[in-house]
Structure formats: structure tokens, C-alpha cells
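pasting for ref
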Amino acid sequence: ELFNLGGPFMWVLLAFSVATIAIVIERCIYLFWHNCRVIPLKDKIISYLTQGRMKEAIEVLSGCSRKETAASIFLELLKNSKYGEARMERAAEGEAQERLRRMENGFNYLTALSSLAPLTGFLGTVSGMIGAFQSIAQATDVNAQLVAGGIYEALITTVFGLIIAIIALIAYNLMIQKVDTFAAETSKGINDIVSVILQDDSDDEGGVKNDKKIHTA
């Protein structure tokens, strides 16, 4: 009944609500399926590296890189570890940007819907108010019930538009917070892993120099 009272603009708002729900569900499934936990994986890889098990670390990351988003980033880091610090960081950052782009896919539609829905609702209200005042102007007996009924019908679209906008904004902020947390943890994870790799390399170089000194002596 409320839907019919809202007029033709309710169909537009219905399309917006369906789109909003579809985007939210799809993004939630994506973020859940592509595990975004960074710290446990980072700690596991650092544990392998401190034991000198680079090959095993790469194998672990290769095995879970399709499902765990951070794994593909750390995998690029380890694959380029032999080319130096700058090359490692560039490779990891490039992969991270691509993964973040995939995670944020569809977010721009949510922001657009959060703006379009209330505007469409307001447009429906203005259209309804025009019709209500037109009815009042044509009525021979104007009473409070007639005025209130016209305004009541006109405001329905605004209410539905605001509900859609609120849902879209809440979902957007929750998901963007998750993405921002992932980005911060990934950046720190890259720095921590690079530090471990560089430390291992310096230890190896120190060991080689000590061996040369012993042989020279």
C-alpha cells in the first residue's frame, strides 16, 4: 500500500534498493572469501624466514595466494627478494594496489546510490506535493484531512530514499574501514618482512667476511 501511495518514483527507489543490497552482499562475499587477515600470515612467513626456510615460505604463499589476499602480495615480495630492497618493495606495492582496487570494486556505486536515493525521494516528494496542492486547488471543500493526506503520500518517497541512503552509507563505511585496516596491516607486513630479509642477507655477508678472515689468518 505504501509503495503504491509513493507514486512512480517508488519504482526508481526500488531499483536503487535492489542495487544497494546486491552490491553489499557481493562485496561481503568477496571480502569473506578472500581472507583479509594479514598479521597471522605475516608472522608465519617471518617465522619461516628467520629459520632460513625461504623456499618453504614461498610454497606456503603459493598454496594460499588465490584465497588469501595478503598472500599474493607477500609472494611477490619474496619472489623479488634476490633483486634488492627497491625491487622487492615495488613488486609488493604494485600487487597491493591491484588487490586494493579489486577489494574496492563497487564502492563508488554505493556512494552514488547514497546520494541519488535521497535526491530521488525528495524529487518524488516535490512531485507529490504539486499533485496534492493541485487537488486542494480543485477541491470545493478543503479540510485538514485532505491537506494532511496529500502531504503524507508525498513524504513516503523521501522516507524510502533516506532509508536506502543510510543502508548504503553504513555498508560503505564498514567495508572501507576493513579495506583501510587491510592496507595499513599489509604495509607494515611488507616493511617487517623486508627488514627480516635484509637482516638475513647482512648476517650472511658478515659470515662470509669472517670466513675470509679466518682463511687469511
